[in-house]
From TrEMBL:
Signal sequence bounds: none
Similarity comment: family membership: Belongs to the glycosyl hydrolase 5 (cellulase A) family.
A GO BP entry: ergosteryl 3-beta-D-glucoside catabolic process
Gene source species: Trametes versicolor (strain FP-101664)
Lineage, highest ranks first: Eukaryota, Fungi, Dikarya, Basidiomycota, Agaricomycotina
Keywords: Glycosidase, Hydrolase, Membrane, Transmembrane, Transmembrane helix
GO molecular function terms listed in the Swiss-Prot or TrEMBL record: steryl-beta-glucosidase activity
The protein's name in its UniProt record: Glycoside hydrolase
Length: 775
């Protein structure tokens, strides 16, 4: 049987049972059926709309909303008609219509995400998708497609924030994001970037899967093309004032003004097109921003602690010379231990003398930074010379030391937010993030940020990403890079991985609270590589380590009480190509493994929607979606299906004092909360877990009541005593419990017997030696 539309789950009340019919009616209804469900974020499911209050998302009834979902989708980085062999030719004629999937396939995917409880979407678009043909030439067909797709979301309980995605500036510099004409405006030759090492493009042409290419793409941030583009975008007026270009109406403007005005104009078109949709609750300015050369401390080296060194890594000065057509000996870095990489060799590259700059471009074939006197070529000695070592560290005109965040990023974020809201509404949420792997800067004070801001940093286990391997041994790279004693940064087993990831996640979240105060935090990206451990799971179809890592990551998120959007749900993913971008393979869903549309049943209880999913037992988990109070603690053990949840009724008289106290994940303020107009808490309990089993609910007070709506995967709890400050507690178990997926091991469970035995032997030997000495 491919479809089961009825659930045979039942439930047990431990203690005094009370009929739910005698309690207040459901506060919200969804759709024509008049039935609410926990994970419905549409206006019908939330009583109007989602908003923010303090660190929380809240619905119209004052309930705290825990938003979980996905990035949709990784395939939005590349156009539908992308061709590995001809790239970067025909860049003006690309189309992204159908990314992330055709409109006719939308019900399949949206129903699937609803069944899995992942109904909060980070919807990805790129600048290239909107404006690939040229400045102010917008792809209205693509925008119409996106509008039609997002219009379908509320029917399935989904909402989204629209995020402008970029990596390493653009596809044409080895990543994704900006259109090709932005590089041409600065003078780059799109066909001349690879040979002089100005960009690494193999990864966007189908590469990145071999050992020597694995994980190289982030090094593109330091390479000439991407670093120059980011510098011109953020700080061109300061560092490249000689670079001028003409607008479409013939005006000559600085390169910074040209790029930023084009960016803002493009965003206004997006906001105007999508801003009035029910599903769109906000916008994110830019994925993983990067400062380029701004604040670069030395032209002779990048910072090993912050900039990835792998493969050929030319310094900024070497990049300048290479881009100008000179041959240069460049260091080559390989993976190592205990340091991540080390320099193992060097090789002369660009022996053909290829230039990265167009002779017919605005620089007339000359390096932009040579044009500004940062370096020059000594023709007598036939070598390059650094002329201004501290050029990017200080304002070249005043000598003032600069800060990328305060001087460039914060002002532009505010300008962007004002532009977006000018064509939408003041209550639209704006999502922002810092440079990847950095904590929230303490300088991000209220006057430097927009209103209604949501902090949306990213988290990945850097050790796993770098090694593309996960096992019993895990490392806290976040801690090591900040001076943690190495032995404290090493963890063993699944318990160790959970604790390791939880500490890192808590550090990110609490850094946000310390800097921003009571501001909502969403982890905008977090995920695991499906092709870890040399891709052995594709051969064996055993996903044990992927399951363990996903569980450890989601456990960490649950302990920090924050929402998230997983990276990523990609229908185009397959076992051979992965996500088909720079060798990445993060999607735990593949359309090629799914059932055809004609076989699907869209009901939430239908397992037909699960085909195509991997490691779903770790991904699809219970969670408190709408809480009539302040969440305090949530713990879920996927091996037995049991979870515990605690929350408190808000208390205006609570003593929430001190900024440090308010920054705690485990001790949230209880006095900062809008009025609650319902006592109904709704918990998503997936049909995958509950079908064929009984829910055993413990810990509620005698006059509390609950009901489980199996058809809509919702456990509703109605509390009776809601006096200010009251703490509620519930533990939910399953009978019979699911078969354990793995052991939650640690060092002592694995080696405790051996350690104890060795200790006994050592002690016995000491006794013998002491006895011999005394005798």
């Amino acid at each position: 049987m491919l479809s089961r539309t009825a659930s045979d789950a039942s439930f047990i009340m431990v203690g005094q049972e009370k009929s739910v019919d005698a309690l207040p009616a459901q506060p919200s209804t969804s759709g024509s059926t008049g039935v609410t469900y926990a994970h419905d974020w549409s206006s019908a499911g939330t009583g109007g709309k989602l908003s923010t209050h303090g660190r929380h998302f809240v619905d119209a009834y004052g309930r705290v909303c825990n938003l979980r979902g996905v990035n949709l989708s990784g395939n939005c980085k590349t156009p539908v008609n992308h061709d590995h062999d001809s790239f970067p030719a025909n860049h003006a004629d690309v189309t992204f219509v159908g990314r992330p999937f055709p409109l006719e396939e939308a019900p399949d995917h949206l129903a699937r995400l609803r069944r899995w409880g992942l109904t909060f979407v980070r919807f990805l678009i790129t600048w290239e998708a909107v404006e690939h043909s040229g400045p102010e030439v917008y792809d209205t067909e693509y925008l119409d497609y996106v509008r039609q797709l997002l219009s379908l979301f509320p029917q399935y309980g989904l909402v989204a924030f629209v995020a402008l995605h970029q990596d390493v500036w653009s596809r044409y510099t080895g990543g994704s994001g900006a259109p090709a004409w932005t590089l041409e405006a600065v003078g780059f030759d799109l066909h001349g970037l690879e040979e002089p090492g100005a960009a690494w493009l193999k990864g966007v042409k189908g590469g990145g899967h071999t050992e020597d290419e694995r994980g190289l793409w982030p090094c593109g941030y330091q390479k000439l093309a991407a670093a120059t583009m980011a510098t011109c975008f953020w700080a061109g007026d300061m560092f490249a004032p000689k670079m001028k270009t003409k607008t479409t109406d013939g005006r000559e403007v600085s390169i910074q003004q040209f790029l930023q005005d084009s960016f803002l104009n493009m965003w206004e078109v997006i906001a105007r097109t999508l801003g009035n949709l029910e599903a769109v609750i906000g916008f994110e300015i830019m994925n993983e921003p990067h400062r380029g050369y701004v604040e670069l401390q030395s032209l002779h080296a990048f910072d090993y602690n912050t900039d990835l060194h792998l493969g050929h890594v030319p310094t900024a000065f070497q990049s300048f010379m290479l881009g100008s057509g000179h041959s240069v000996a460049v260091g080559h870095w390989t993976r190592s231990f205990p340091l991540p990489t080390r320099k193992t060799s060097q090789r002369i590259i660009n022996t053909s003398g290829q230039k990265a700059w167009r002779e017919d471009g605005p620089t007339q074939g000359k390096c932009l930074w040579e044009m500004h006197g940062v370096w020059g070529w000594d023709h007598k000695k036939d070598e390059g010379v650094v002329l201004r070592e501290n050029y990017f560290k200080r304002d070249p005109h005043s000598g003032r030391e600069i800060d990328w965040y305060t001087d460039f990023y914060y002002p532009f974020v505010k300008k962007w937010a004002e532009r977006v809201r000018s064509v939408t509404s003041e209550d639209k949420l704006v999502f922002t993030e810092p440079i990847p792997n950095e904590f929230c800067p303490s300088s991000w004070t209220p006057e430097r940020r927009p209103t209604n801001v949501v902090y949306a940093p990213h988290w990945y286990d850097l050790n796993t990403l770098f090694m593309k391997a996960f096992g019993n041994f895990s490392v806290n790279v976040q801690g090591l890079s900040r001076g943690m004693f190495p032995l404290k940064a090493f963890y063993w087993g699944q318990k160790g991985a959970r604790d390791n990831f939880a500490l890192q996640m808590r550090n990110i979240v609490e850094a946000g609270y310390r800097s921003l105060g009571e501001t909502p935090v969403i982890i905008g990206e977090c995920g695991i590589p499906m092709d870890m451990n040399k891709g052995e799971a594709f051969e064996t179809d055993r996903w044990d380590w992927q399951t363990k890592m996903m569980d450890a990551m989601l456990t960490a998120l649950e302990r920090s009480l924050v929402g998230f959007t997983l990276w990523n749900y990609n229908p185009d993913n397959d076992d051979r190509r992965g996500d088909d971008w720079n060798g990445e393979n993060f999607s735990w869903f593949s359309q090629r493994r799914a059932l055809p549309t004609s076989w699907l049943d869209y009901k939430q209880t239908s397992p037909t929607l699960d085909n195509g999913g991997r490691i779903l037992r770790a991904v699809v988990r219970p969670y408190p979606a709408k809480t009539a109070g302040i969440p305090l603690r949530f713990e879920y053990e996927m091996n037995n299906g049991e979870f515990t949840y605690e929350w408190a009724t808000p208390d205006d008289a609570a003593a929430d004092t001190g900024k440090a106290a308010l920054a705690s994940v485990h001790n949230p303020p209880r006095s900062i909360h809008p009025p609650l107009t319902t006592n109904r808490t709704e918990i998503f309990v997936p049909a995958q877990l509950a079908q064929g089993r009984k829910l055993v609910v413990r810990g509620l007070k005698p006059q509390d009541a609950y009901t489980y709506d199996a058809e809509h995967q919702t456990l509703a709890i109605l509390t009776h005593d809601n006096a200010p400050g009251t703490v509620h507690h519930v533990t939910v178990a399953l009978e019979p419990g699911p078969k354990p997926a793995f052991d939650v091991n640690d060092f002592w469970s694995d080696y405790g017997t051996q350690v104890a035995g060795s200790a006994v032997l050592v002690l016995a030997l000491l006794v013998v030696l002491v006895g011999s000495y005394l005798s």
